[in-house]
Amino acid sequence: MTMTQLKQRSLLGLKELSKDEIESILDRAAYWENHSTKVHNTMQGKFAANMFFENSTRTRFSFEVAEKRLGTEVLNFSAAVSSVQKGESIYDTVRTLESMGIDVGIIRLKPIGVLAELATKIKVPLINAGDGNNEHPTQALLDMYTMRKHFGQLKGLTVTIVGDVLHSRVARSNLWALQKFGVKVNFCSPPNMQATDLDVSYVTIDEALKSDVVMMLRVQLERHESGMLSSAESYREHFGLTVERASKLANHAIIMHPAPINRNVEIDDELVEHPQSRIFPQMENGVPIRMAVVERALS
Ligand code: CP
Question: I need a surface site. Which of 3, 70, 75, 114 has the fewest CB within 10 A?
């Protein structure tokens, strides 16, 4: 495989992906969503390795479901029970699986920059399943798919991403991809959770409620320096989507959240499965999106 083919089949982020490429992944996901047969043999004989160096439920299992639906042989690597615990490096781990003949590697990593470096050394397509606070492209693709399904098109929508954007790879991937489609993206965050490196408008929580899509983010306590969050109650009071705030949303507006959720912190318990919530449909849409992305890597 040439370097150009390798680059075309890999998915490291949405910042560098064209609008046409994103659209073709969304269209292919719609094809898979509407396909009634659960398991296909399209990718029979291909090996996919899911390499998660950071915890995951949704991304890891929806990649596995997607791979199995495509007929792919699936290898699941978990750092917690691997030789990483003996000090083996990320590069040596991925290189080991490559040498065993995998056809695609799906990787989640905590340190930023490692995935981009791996992609220059590994000769099979790599798919980013979450890269520090840099990008989470398949999450943003499934978010866009969910919005497009609800509104018919993305152009002209206003999407406000509320919460801990500083630590959010979901916010970054959505921002960069949605802007290519003519979506107005705002952020709404406490000052110490704002991402000052990004060129984006910050709005108040009251302004956020006027949006077509209110995307709530998890407060990522595991990535915080101590003292970033004074209390869960105070965060909910100032930035949480409470039942009272949600009553001000337009009838056509939708609530999204990439999950996992801190219930009653960034979003009230009653809103998670509210008629305007698309949180579980987002997870459902993750499977056809990942089928489209894995198929693109293996085709
Ligand atoms: N949304 C998301 O990435 O969830 P997981 O961390 O469970 O994969």
Answer: 3
